[in-house]
Amino acid sequence: MNVTFDWNEWFFIISSAIAILLFLPIRRYFPPVIVTIIWIYNLALVATIDYFLLATPFRMYIFGDNPTYELSGALFHFFMYPCSALIFLFGYDRWELYGKKSIWYILGWSAFSLFFEWLTVKNHALIYTGWKLVYSIPVYPAAAVLLIIVFRFAKKRLMDPELEASSKIN
User: Fold this and answer.
1) Backbone phi, then psi, for 160, in 5-degree steps?
2) Beta strands in 8-122 (DSSP E)
3) What is the pLDDT of residue 84?
4) What is the Cα–Cα distance from 81 to 66, expressed in whole angstroms?
5) pTM for the predicted model, two decimal places
6) Residues 6 or more apart from 34 whose CB is under 8 A from it?
7) Shortest CA distance to 63 belongs to which of 120, 20, 16, 139?
8) Residue 148 CB: number of other CB atoms within 10 A?
9) What is the pLDDT of residues 131-155, one digit of tens each?
10) At 69, is the pLDDT very low, low, confident or very high (cuts 50, 70, 90)?
11) C-alpha dihedral (146, 147, 150, 155), degrees to nearest 10
């Protein structure tokens, strides 16, 4: 693994630290099982989509200084995406942004995500080798909708009174 420690590693560390610090005050809003499900879901999403686009034959972008996998990129994936997803879901659920309100919420977060991706490119933490920022425009709303679906499914299944009653009987 070829490792150099320069600004893009600091960018990953600072961004991840901010996401963690924003997540910590709200972590108790969700039951631990929901946090675990969302965390694993996001890791799986990154592992399937991001790594698919990073790998041969596509190599659409690279994280960090070089095409080899860097530890700072892994830490970014492990903390930034799940914490951001849980912050997104906190606002969605806490303020009951359902129906048409959720459309504006998703569009707002998508705009922020596009800005953050642009910032990541400007800080040379993400280097496009075939990808363009415009390609991400449909990706963020789709990812947000899928995240909400996973969250609502998990919440409904885990908070179902009939399931809780049957688990107490067994």
Assistant:
1) -70, 120
2) 61-63
3) 97
4) 21
5) 0.89
6) 151, 154, 155, 158
7) 120
8) 19
9) 999 999 999 999 999 999 999 999 9
10) low
11) -140
* 155 alpha carbon, distance to own chain's centre: 18
Q: What ranges make up the beta strands (E) of 52-140?
A: 61-63, 126-128
Burial (CB < 10 A; 0-12, 13-18, 19+), residue 162, is exposed
CA angle 157, 22, 115 (to 5 degrees): 100
Residues found in the chain: 170
CB 64 within 8 A of CB 72: yes
CB 15 within 8 A of CB 80: yes
Q: How far is residue 6's CA from residue 65's CA, in Å, rounded to a whole number? A: 9
Query: Beta strands of the chain (E only): which ranges?
Result: 61-63, 126-128
Q: Which residues, other chains included, contact 23 with Cβ-Cβ below 8 Å and sequence gap of 6+?
A: 83, 86, 87
**CB 28 within 8 Å of CB 89:** no
Cα–Cα distances (Å) from 118 to 2, 71, 74, 98, in that order, read 25, 22, 19, 29
